[in-house]
Amino acid sequence: MTTAHDYSEGIDPERALKYAIQHHSGDRTEIVEGVICHVTPSWPHENAAEEIRDQIKPRVKELGCVTGSGNLDLPGTPNWYIPDIAVAPKDLATRNEALLPDQTLLIVEVTSDSNAETDRVVKRKRYAEYGAPLYLLVDRVEKTVTLFAGPGRLGYTKVDGPHSFGTPVHLPAPFNLDLDTSGL
To answer: Residues 6 or more apart from 104 whose CB is under 8 A from it?
Structure first.
């Protein structure tokens, strides 16, 4: 008589879920608080991200970093994020593995009608908890930009904004530049 093997022993559900998301084919998919979310940005959404990327690109290169929408893992949680923009050191970004938020210099999320609350509340909390030094929220719904800094377990300790689109927003060190938000 044969018996069925119990495969549940030794399987880490968090790891299995994140593995499945990483190895499926196709679009950008992330996990937010255990919910699988397919990311399908609109052209206005992409335009806002491109406006930011174009402005920070020269400084990013000077810093020996790259911009991208690579995977960010939040170990110990059912979260696997794909930010609209992350700035990371080039030596870390060339490895074939997800980065942790504290390995970035800046994370940018651009809201859409479908994900605005997630970017405003959940991701802001998680990015702070996992040490992302700067989190720039481009809120297309509210037409504002807010910069969060000083990450900690209870959230960000410094908030600059919200600023209406068109108001310059200063990115502190290591960027030390003012973002023109009029084209967002």
So the answer is: 72, 86, 87, 88, 132, 133
The answer to whether residue 48 is domain-embedded is yes
Which pTM value belongs to this model? 0.88
Tell me the CATH number at 24.
Answer: 3.90.1570.10
Nearest to 175 by CA among 58, 68, 73: 58
- Enumerate the β-bridge partners of residue 30: 37
Q: Which amino acid is at 128?
A: A
Q: Is 6 domain-assigned?
A: no
Q: How far is CA 160 from CA 57, 126, 129, 150, in A?
A: 22, 18, 18, 11
Neighbours of 146 (CB within 10 A): 19
| Separation of alpha carbons 24 and 126, rounded Å | 24
Are the beta carbons of 184 and 51 closer than 8 angstroms?
yes
Q: What is the pLDDT of residues 27-42, one digit of tens each?
A: 677 778 877 777 777 8
User: Would 7 be classed as within a structural domain?
Assistant: no
Q: Which domain holds residue 35?
A: 13-179
The span from the CA of 106 to the CA of 136, in Å, is 7
